[in-house]
Amino acid sequence: MTETIFNRVLTIVIGFLLCCAVYFYFTEDNPKPVASNPTAQAPSTPPPSTNDKPPQVNEQDNEQKENKNENEKNNENEQNNNKDEQPKEQEKEKNENEQQQNSEEQAKPSDDLPDIVWGIDSASETTTDFYACVKENFGDPVIFGRYLGDREGISAGLTEEQVKIIHAKGDFILPIYNHFNDATGYDNGVSQANEAIKMADELGIPEGVAIFADIEPDYPVDSEFIRGWFETIEGSQYKSGIYGVFDPEQALFAAYQEAGQNNPAIIEQNYIWTAAPSIGITAEAKAPEFNPSAPEGSLAWGWQYGLDAETCNIDTNLFKGELVDVLWGP
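RE: above sequence
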């Protein structure tokens, strides 16, 4: 009995040892995995890369961020540059305008002339023979007054051919409008001015030239005609001028003063070519001192001091040299 028990115990022990040996044999190179615990499991470490570069996705993200930041920086710089450039452009444009204005001021035709120049006006047709007569008997005019359009029995109108002759001599044309014999009424002044503008434009007179209304001493005149003429001419491409006998005893003198009171710009901007006082025809060399009669403060820049020369059919004049800046030059 005892021997039997012993044998069974021995058999059990041997069997247990064999089982252990088999177990350790199969599990020696395969260690038992540790049971996972979601709350304590450590993050897995990625296998080492063959290079030090981050994953491609991360590199693209970084490049996109860098490009975005660079674009934003460039945009900001461009906006700042534009802000800086705007004042520079404005300053540049301002300087260019000032230079152009200064250039125009410095390039006036009158700059090369004396303060007072000699000139003529005539109702006759201008020819080369006419010029030869004037030069031989009187002198060399700087300003030549000529009429717009024919007025039968009174004046021969200026033509393109005559313009070429006058400009070829280096002279400045003073355009005269005389197609009326009544200088009263605002509407009449407007109407006559519009006709003068039309005739001047058809002849090719450039903008900025003064056109002179011829108000003869025997014409009725009032301030409203003067105002209508002035305001219409000044509203066009031309400048306003008036010829007449501006003697204090003449109706024109008082009418002009009244017109200047109603519209002060007339005194400040309208050019006067006065036939007062009249002292007689002379040659250029014997011309008197410049002494025109006109309302105080007016632009009395022309003086017809001598009327109706027997030779050459001219009147003789003195003008301020700066008047050529508003005449039709060569």
